[in-house]
Design brief:
Elements (H helix, E strand, L loop, with lengths): L5 H10 L3 E5 L3 H9 L4 E4 L3 H4 L11 H12 L6 E5 L8 H13 L5 E5 L5 H9 L4 E6 L5 H4 L9 H17 L3 E5 L3 H10 L4 E4 L7 E4 L1 H4 L20 H14 L11
Parallel strand pairs: 1-2, 1-8, 2-3, 3-4, 4-5, 5-6, 6-7, 7-8
Helix pairs in contact: 5-6, 6-8, 8-9
Length: 264
């Protein structure tokens, strides 16, 4: 497999080839993930929960993200590396630009990811203007879990769904190169995917998204509290390598997620 790039990932959307994404937080797992043909490796701030043992992603710092991104990057021979900007690290376009530069220069990230809709349009525009690739994130936004009152499905109400569509278009126009949709009803996720020219990556957002992402620990069935949209691929005597390969095949074939793992 050739080294993935923004150009090749956008071409995958155009040709209908599904994009596989897994999180990684250390070199060893990243190396295994990369060797099994996963398209994108995401250094997520989910490390706050699955690595550090926090109840949310809120305590994760820039130093944490740089450290984990740097060590994961050493294993990314083929996959594309995206790293999260953590909580309160992009409260202004200027702060976001400074911290995105650190993630790319010190953490070797190829793209940064940030949460939020219309309030982030100016930030995305400035990052894009300065040559920083951006993955936006709509739907359930874990960094806002205390504000929204829990890990809840987003976009079921008509007004909320329209706002999400408007936000997605605005983020794309501002220069976002990709969009994660988390815990979004399948019909809305399909409409967003069909409307946008940039790839959509779903997590609890149905099979119509251009790609699928899971937290590695959820995919391996070792998370303390696995969400509804997760699937344990480490079954039936599989090794970790075989489980990751099975996830990749299921994403590419469109068999993951199943209806039981979707929201309607």
């Amino acid at each position: 497999m050739a080294k993935r790039s923004i150009r090749s990932l956008k071409k995958m959307k155009q040709t209908g080839e599904k994009i596989s994404v897994l999180t990684a937080y250390d070199y060893s797992f990243a190396q295994v993930i990369d060797s099994q043909g996963i398209d994108i490796i995401l250094v997520g701030d989910s490390l706050g929960m699955v690595i550090q043992g926090h109840a949310s992603t809120i305590p994760v710092t820039m130093e944490d993200m740089i450290y984990h991104s740097k060590i994961v990057s050493r294993a990314c021979k083929n996959g594309f590396l995206i790293t999260d900007l953590p909580f309160m690290s992009y409260t202004s376009p200027e702060q976001a630009t400074e911290n995105a530069a650190r993630l790319m220069q010190e953490g070797n990230a190829q793209m940064v990811k940030l949460e939020g809709g219309s309030p982030q349009v100016e930030t995305v525009s400035q990052l894009s203007h300065h040559g920083v690739p951006v993955c936006a994130h709509l739907g359930l936004q874990p960094q806002s879990v205390h504000k929204i009152g829990g890990y809840l499905v987003q976009g079921r109400e008509e007004k909320q769904a329209k706002q999400m569509l408007d936000d997605a278009i605005a983020l794309q126009e501002a220069g976002a190169d990709m969009l994660v949709l988390e815990c979004v009803p399948v019909d809305l996720a399909k409409k967003l995917t069909d409307t946008l020219s940039i790839p959509t990556i779903g997590i609890g957002a149905g099979r119509s998204c251009d790609g699928q992402v899971l937290v590695l620990q959820d995919m391996l069935g070792i998370s303390e509290h696995a969400p509804k949209f997760a699937q344990n691929f480490l079954q039936n005597g599989r090794t970790i390598q075989q489980a990751i390969a099975a996830f990749n095949r299921a994403v590419k074939a469109g068999s993951f997620p199943s209806d039981e793992q979707c929201f309607f």
